[in-house]
Every structure is written in structure tokens, then in C-alpha cells.
Amino acid sequence: MYFNRKSETMARTELDRLKLRRLKAVAKRCYKVPFYRNAMKASGVRPEDIKNLEDIKKLPFTTKDDLRESAPFGMLAVKLDECIELHASSGTTGVPVTVCYTRNDIEVWSEVMARCLVMAGLTKKDIFQNPIPYGTFTGAFGFHYGAQKVGALVIPSGMGQSERQIQLMKYYGTTFISGVVSYAAHLGQVALNMGINPATDLKVRHGIFGSEMFTPGLKKKLAELWNMDVYDIYGLTEMCGPGVSTDCHLHDGLHLWEDHFLVECVDPKTGEEVEKEEYGEIVLTTLTKEGMPILRFRTHDLAFLYDVKRCGCGRTHIKHSQIKGRTDDMIIISGTNVFPGQIEHVLMQNDRVGLNYRIVIGKKGDMDKLAVEVESREKLGEQEKQELERKLQNELKLVLLLTPDVKILDPGAIPKDTIKAKRVIDNR
Ligand SMILES: [Zn+2]
């Protein structure tokens, strides 16, 4: 099933020609923006120097700090009155990044979202519940526009009021849900507490989740809890929001819409391209954005690009792996490097472990102390808890090369009050 068969299965040579034409155009558009004009002049490159796709390497990178310094409207390539909507990143780590959309930008965003949703199984017969906060955060509107474009019936339930979310699912017969994995896990637990088994008492059979890194182990647990097919969607405010890529039904990599986004994979330290199928930092260029086009954005997300010409699903657009983590989410504990994904991977292998966990870092005297708190799938007795704690501690020790404290909590014990799960709490 395709939303736009012609674009999604376009021959590679034709797709590359289209990409080059659009890359030339976006370099010209960006040259109107003082930041890019200065950056291009500094590196001695002009838009006319882009003659083939490899020439993208001549263009400057853009970082989140560059966007913040020009916030809110300094990076616009059109007049503000040509824009009809704005969104902003959550801004938890500083000034939010604001992006402005022209009418055509909203149209393109709806189109790429519709492609992603159809790839994840959405049809016009579906009842699509959207438990994401509607606001300046890009998530809810992206899914909303995309699902409407497909023709599904959208329930704009917003986030929060978890029991009501479950009641809406039951009342309207929701078949498809979106959001973030940690909230879907939380909702599953809330349903169970209400005496409703999501796998048998609800009709939700498809879920598409983004915005948080999740391991295949967590994906499998979520799929079992809800008896649904789980899809992973990738995107970021700087590109449009969600809608950059999604996995097809083969669940082997995420197709990235190359007619709208040009992807590179680079060594995070040197900025040089890495080999195909080698992990690196994803770098993205908007090819069709009018309001706020961005060249070579450093995402900090770590993944690899597949080296296959055509996927079994018939799509020709390149695939990237699931996001393994971020270049900046590494935690250093007493000199040892730890990635949250390593911990999640170990936890999710265990059948008695639930879907929610957090990593708490503190101090014991002068030493850093790592603690892992994880909910069990079902309520356990004291002795069972201690056994499971010891088992997980030993398994984590082998992977992390340090010994964390492990604490098993009852199902639902970890609070869920932010959009994205707060997996790491650093009290140092
Ligand atoms: Zn595919």
C-alpha cells in the first residue's frame, strides 16, 4: 500500500535527478538568508558551484546553536507574512528553535506524514487517536494533518487524562494510535488497571511512535501488550516535525523521503562521510522547504544508511537503521562511557520486566553511583524482586563494565508527566 505510488517507487536515476534539481534550488534560496550567505562566502562557495549531488559537501553545516542565535525569525527565506503556522522545539536545553511554514510547507508536511502513515498500515477506514499534546510541539499537528490527508477519522485526544484516553478508545473503537512509546506503554498499564486488556478488549492494532529512541526489545514488549503492529517514525522540528522516515511492513530500516530530505551520514567528530552501513551522525538538508530551508543540519542522531537499491516493499527511497542514540546522550560514570540504549537492551530481554525504567545517577562520597529502576511486568513478591534485581545487575555488569544498583518497582510506579519519558536523572 502506498499513499503516493509514483513518488515512493520512483526509479533511482529519476529520483537522483530530482534531488539535484532541488538541491540547486535550495542552495539558491538559502543564499538569501544572511547566515547562509556569510557561511558560503566564508568557505568560498556559491550556489552555482553545486553541479552534482556530491557537491553538497561544499555547503556549510548548520547546528542547533546557529538556529538559536538567529531565533525566532532570522533564518527565514521568505517574508514572515508568507508563513501561516509556526512550531518550536521543546527548548528544555535553552532557547527554543522556531520554524515557520508557508502554505506549501504545510502541504508537503501533510504529504510526507500521509506516506508514513499509509506505510504503517493506515487506511481511510481507520479511527486514528492522536494522544499527543496539541501546541507548539510539532508532533500532534503532523500526525493530524497526515491522517486527515489519508482520510482516516481523527480523534484529536491530546495528551494526558490517561483513563479518558482508554475510554475514548473503547467508546469510538479506535484502531490506530500515535504518540511516543513511553506514553503508549503507560496507557497500556492504565488500561490494565481499569480492568481492560488492551490486547483483547480494545481494537487498536496499529501504532506509530516517534520522538524517543527505543530498542527492538521494547518494541516487541509494546506489540505484545497491545497486540498491535508497532512502527517507528523519525523526524525533528528543524525538518518539519515527524514525517522524515518510517519503517515499512518488513520492519527492516526506515524509508526516508529523499525527494524532500537529503540525507548524509558523517563521522560526528570529523564531519566526513562514513562508509555505507557504518554508524554515523545523520545530517539532513530540506529540499523543498520554503519558509525555513536548512542546509546540512547536524541532528546528533546516530544511525547507519542501508546499501540496498530497492526494498521488498517496492519503495526505492533509502533506508536508515533505527536511531541507536544521540552523540550527546552518552553518560560518563566514574570514567566509564554508558549509553542508555545499552541498559534498555539488557532490561527488555527479560520476560519479567515491564516497559518502563529510568536511570538515576548520584554520588556516594566522591564516587559516581549508577542506579537502574525498572518496573516489573506483574507485581512480584519481595523474594522474587531480589532475585530479579541480582540477575539484572549481573547482566548489566557484563555489558557496562561497572556494577549498577538495580531496583524493581511495581507496575505503574514510575510517574509519567512529561511528553517524552525522562529516562536519565542525573543528580550529580
Ligand atoms: Zn520497504
Molecular structure report:
The chain has an eight-stranded mixed beta sheet. It is globular and about 70 Å long. It has twelve helices and 20 strands. By secondary structure, the chain is α/β, with parallel strands linked by helices. A hairpin with a 6-residue loop joins strand 8 and strand 9. It folds into two domains: 328 residues, Rossmann fold; 96 residues, ANL, C-terminal domain (GMP Synthetase, Chain A, domain 3), CATH 3.30.300.30.
Q: Could you outline the blueprint of secondary structure elements for this entry?
A:
Elements: H1 5-8, H2 12-30, H3 34-42, H4 64-69, E1 83-88, E2 98-102, H5 103-119, E3 127-129, H6 139-150, E4 153-155, H7 162-172, E5 176-177, H8 181-193, H9 198-201, E6 206-210, H10 216-226, E7 229-236, E8 241-247, E9 254-256, E10 261-266, E11 280-286, E12 297-303, E13 319-320, E14 325-326, E15 331-333, E16 336-338, H11 340-348, E17 353-364, E18 367-376, H12 382-400, E19 405-409, E20 424-426
Parallel strand pairs: 3-4, 3-5, 5-6, 6-7, 17-20, 18-19
Antiparallel strand pairs: 1-2, 7-8, 8-9, 9-13, 10-11, 11-12, 12-14, 15-16, 17-18
Helix pairs in contact: 5-6, 7-8, 8-10, 10-11, 11-12
The structure holds zinc ion.
